[in-house]
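Here is the promised in-class demo. Please do not try to memorize the tokens; focus on the logic of going from shape to residues.
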């Protein structure tokens, strides 16, 4: 197991930004932001083998520590020893893919032990694996859905009164899925889009959940527009508003970037170059508008994105990086460039938004998921990633 210190890049620029904020205390106070610290990260290589491009954080063995799930393997904290969920298998990073494009943790059967939701290659069936709990033994496999659509499925609290649900396409229709009332039956599907919507296609890119219109209910966002959550969620398609929200994206984060009490959208290019945000505005008649602003254009294949307040200033930061060989060593743009992993910190100034880029690592990157979460319970957010270069945790110092 390898551990190495990885510091935030551009330390001097970050320090200068801190000084600027300290000299503009009135502005910082008015924006509700705190003076940020400068995080550094300790890199822990859980596995140097390609296991998965999806990753989940959960207390798998209920010992009070957060463990890591990556495809067929889970890694037990704090020594990160690998344990089998299924036979590990062998996956060729240059010519193939793993069976885990996305992994989510959910106590499906309500026994108090986190199970694994496993989404493989787009279009293939989705399954969940039952955590055997203290008795040990096999993680038994049960069906979730006959197929999966959209390469950026979402797992979040979409429906009032429920826990996290799975949002994705099934048979070219976007919907949300939750465990059925019958044990071990496929999950119940509830439509969001009308049938045959492009956002539900097996290879569609870009999906997010958040209250885009400010009515207090979580909406669903794609690059082609958004579905407004109805006051009562049933089994009818949701009202759709078409919008032009960029090219193929990874996960789309919905939150108020600039502090104007309107939700904006942050996204990254799954196979091209770029990280950007769409600022929400209003026309004179109240129609929402979305203006694109670039955050970064220095690396390609940012096929995963997550957010969280890494530096403690009260504002959400953005974590993304380069996916290794999304289409092999000759596919997409810059396929063999370093596996960079960055966090981007926003700053609200009197003249508008600025973003600072900070390097976490340049020899890992992201897969189809990157996660921000407190892995070691110290109150500071860490980063976890599984990709074709291995499985990694970056612990904030």
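The designed amino acids, position by position:
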């Amino acid at each position: 197991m390898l551990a190495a210190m990885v510091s935030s890049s551009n330390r001097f620029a970050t320090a200068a930004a801190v000084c600027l904020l300290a000299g503009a205390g009135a502005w910082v106070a008015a924006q509700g932001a705190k003076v940020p610290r400068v995080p550094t990260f300790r890199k822990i290589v859980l596995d140097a083998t390609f296991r998965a491009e999806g990753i989940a954080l959960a207390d798998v063995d209920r010992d009070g520590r957060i463990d890591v799930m990556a495809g067929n393997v889970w890694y037990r904290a704090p020594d990160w020893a690998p344990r089998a969920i299924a036979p590990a298998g062998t996956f060729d990073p240059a010519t193939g893919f793993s069976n885990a494009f996305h992994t989510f943790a959910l106590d499906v059967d309500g026994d108090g032990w986190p199970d694994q939701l496993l989404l493989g290659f787009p279009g293939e069936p989705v399954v969940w694996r039952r955590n055997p709990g203290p008795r040990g033994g096999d993680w038994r496999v049960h069906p979730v859905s006959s197929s999966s659509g959209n390469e950026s499925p979402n797992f979040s609290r979409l429906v009032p009164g429920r826990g996290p649900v799975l949002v994705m396409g099934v048979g070219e229709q976007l919907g949300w899925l939750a465990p059925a009332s019958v044990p071990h039956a496929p999950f119940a599907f509830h439509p969001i889009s009308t049938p045959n919507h492009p956002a539900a296609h097996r290879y569609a890119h870009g999906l997010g959940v958040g209250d885009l219109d400010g009515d207090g209910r979580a909406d669903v966002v794609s690059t082609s527009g958004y579905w407004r959550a109805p006051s009562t969620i049933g089994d009818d398609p949701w009202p759709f508003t078409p919008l032009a929200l960029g090219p193929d994206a990874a996960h789309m984060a919905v939150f108020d970037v600039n502090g104007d009490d309107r939700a904006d959208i942050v996204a990254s290019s799954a196979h091209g170059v770029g990280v950007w945000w769409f600022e929400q505005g209003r026309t004179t008649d109240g129609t929402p508008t979305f203006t694109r602003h670039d955050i970064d254009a220095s690396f390609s294949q940012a096929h995963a994105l997550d957010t969280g307040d890494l530096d403690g200033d009260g504002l959400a930061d953005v974590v993304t990086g380069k996916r290794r060989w999304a289409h092999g060593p000759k596919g997409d743009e810059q396929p063999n460039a370093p596996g960079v992993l960055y966090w981007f910190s926003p700053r609200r100034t009197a003249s508008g938004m600025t973003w600072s880029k900070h390097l976490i690592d340049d020899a890992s990157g992201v897969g189809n998921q990157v996660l921000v979460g407190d892995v070691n319970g110290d109150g500071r957010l860490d980063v976890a990633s599984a990709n074709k270069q291995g499985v990694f945790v970056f612990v904030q110092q």
